[in-house]
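Reply to dn_fold:

You asked what the input looked like. This is it:
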Amino acid sequence: MNCRKYFYLFISIFCFSFYSLSCKTQKVNPFTGFKYEILEKQVPVPYLGKGTFTMAVIPDIQNYTIYNCQKEYDPNFPISFHEILDRQMEFVVDNSKVRGGGIEFAVFLGDLVSKRSEHPEEWLYADNAISKLDSIIPFSVVIGNHDYDKWVREKRGEIWQVKGTKFYNKYFGPKSKHFAGKKWYGGASKNGLNSYVFLEAAGHKFLILGLEFEPSDQAIEWAQSVIDSYPDLPCIVTVHGFLSAIKIKTSGNNHFGWIKHHKEGEGNTGSSVYKKLIKPNKSIFLVLCGHAFEGPVGEGMRVDINDAGYKVYSILSNYQGRADICKAYGIDPVEDCGDGFLRLMTFDFNRKICHIQTYSTEFKTFEVDADSDFFIDLDWEGRFSANVK
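and this is what came back:
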């Protein structure tokens, strides 16, 4: 019995090693199905006709804006990482509806900077890049844990607590140049960390609701008041932390995220946000989040059924742990950056589906594994009867 056991173990190891070697030879990541070769031209995101539109989702840009990975501060660094972010924004602009493409909205999932308020230059990198979208398409931004002014420990051994929002509100708060006076900007909570915007596309009007990191009960109450004001609008919730990067083996769903940067009672876990806000509201059909990542993957999702019996899709995107473009640029030691990955979500109300794709503006190609290229249903009949056209 033991001999047979070890024989099967040997065969398993051999097969996996052969598969990994084969993938390495062909420059394919066996866990993502992605070919690591830089193509010459960006892939266009076309407008697919009446009843369709595309939304760009940009997660965790902190490693693009990080202070020490720029030529300005390290002349020996081969490239400035903020240029990757610039190229992402240029890609969104070039494929926007006003330029003949299909992208009509963009979502930023937080962690706009890395070192909080230690290096104000990071905020300028983020601001300058995102400013490329001003007057082109509407967009929303949420605060991540790295976007607070500082982290402090109030007791020895306690986890870091986030404090201060001066920089975030200055650059991306309701009074910032990005949102002040915009017709599509709905408003914000008193602290400026929760906001909502309106999106009109493909004959539908959406409520895009952005929540602060690890939302407090007050933030959830504020969010509920906004939903109550627009109960018939399909609602997308965006929040930096919501899902864990770890999957539940039995269901394939990702776990909800936990509290890491607030004291007990000052913030809510992903499961608490779901129970208090997402589950009771039939209008919330989609939750988008970043923050969590495990190794280089940084993807995941879960499907839940709300109190009204409808599906709620929660999608995790965070590519900050990826560094293959650095290898292409010959950076040693290799630094993580994100490889220019973003999500493209194409809503097609003719087919009643949303196609989620994962694209790298550096490699100029798509990732095609099951976590990176998939569809979700737009089961809106009855759910949004007043909004279906």
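The chain is about 20% helix and 25% strand.
Hope that clears it up.
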